[in-house]
Every structure is written in C-alpha cells, then in structure tokens.
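Input (structure):
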C-alpha cells in the first residue's frame, strides 16, 4: 500500500478515535447535573443544570490525557515515519483535521443536548463553552501545529560535519 494513503488512513482513524473520546468525556461531564433555581425571569420553559465539579474535572482530565498521550504516541511517531513532505498529504491532512474537528463540535453539542434534554441549559456557561468550542479548536491546532513543526524540522539544511583535529593533523 502507498505510504501516503496509509498515513492518511491512520490520520482518519486517529481523528475518529478523538471524536469518540471527546464525546464520551463530555457525557462523563454530564454525570450528576443538578437543577439550579428556576429561570422564571427569562423563560419559564428552560431549566438551568449545574455541572458536578468532580465529574466535569474527570471528563476534562480523561480527554486531555488522551489528547496528549495519543499525540506523543501517534502523531510524533507517524509524522517521523511517513512521507509528509508531499504537498498533497499536507493539504489532505488539513482537510481531514478540519472535517473531524467540526464533527467533534457537532457531536459534543448533540451528545449533551440529548442526555440533558433540549429545554435545559448548562451552567456555568464557561465550562460548557470550554467543552464544546475549545476542545475541537485545541485538537485542530495540535494536529496541524505538530505537522508544521515536523515539516519545518525536515526542511532545515543538515549541518556540515566538522573535521576533527586528527584528520587535520594527517
């Protein structure tokens, strides 16, 4: 099989795994939601649900741990082993990471809405914002920044070997 196709196939599998782990971790964060005081002033149909701090932290740590551990094990080794210098591989990798980060965004929104219900709000909103918007952005940046770092490292000219004193004396 072509090395480029194998690399891109592994990239797709990594992205799918990242979406699944992010969705499961966001569902872990929804464990133990508690209803806050009713929201009568704005709209009586909506109910505010407060995150359980422990469950939110566990979900966040699992996702962060998976992201950085998989980055070390998958991305670093695969970028060094496969031909990423070809422009088509770089463009397709960028498109794959863009599509799957958008899919992650949609999965995070719908997973939490299906679990808690469509008439409930998650509070504090900053924590929901971090989960729904920041996780896909961090994943996208990490995948593409790592690729750019390896491309830049690969294009540096190799240093000329310095002659040792023994070779100069002869």
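Output (sequence):
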């Amino acid at each position: 099989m072509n090395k480029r196709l194998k690399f891109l196939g592994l990239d797709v599998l990594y992205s799918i795994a990242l979406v699944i782990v992010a969705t499961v971790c966001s569902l872990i964060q929804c464990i133990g939601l508690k209803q806050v005081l009713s929201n009568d002033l704005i709209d009586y149909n909506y109910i505010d649900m407060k995150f359980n701090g422990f469950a939110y932290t566990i979900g966040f740590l699992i996702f962060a741990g998976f992201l950085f551990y998989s980055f070390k094990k998958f991305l670093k080794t695969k970028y060094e082993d496969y031909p990423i210098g070809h422009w088509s591989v770089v463009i397709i990798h960028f498109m794959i990471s863009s599509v799957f980060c958008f899919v992650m965004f949609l999965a995070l929104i719908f997973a939490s809405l299906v679990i808690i219900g469509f008439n409930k709000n998650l509070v504090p909103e900053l924590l929901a914002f971090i989960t729904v918007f920041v996780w896909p952005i961090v994943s996208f940046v990490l995948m593409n920044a790592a690729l750019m770092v390896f491309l830049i490292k690969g294009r540096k000219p190799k240093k000329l070997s310095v002659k040792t004193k023994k070779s100069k004396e002869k």
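Notes: The radius of gyration is 23 Å. The beta strands are 34-35, 47-50, 120-123.
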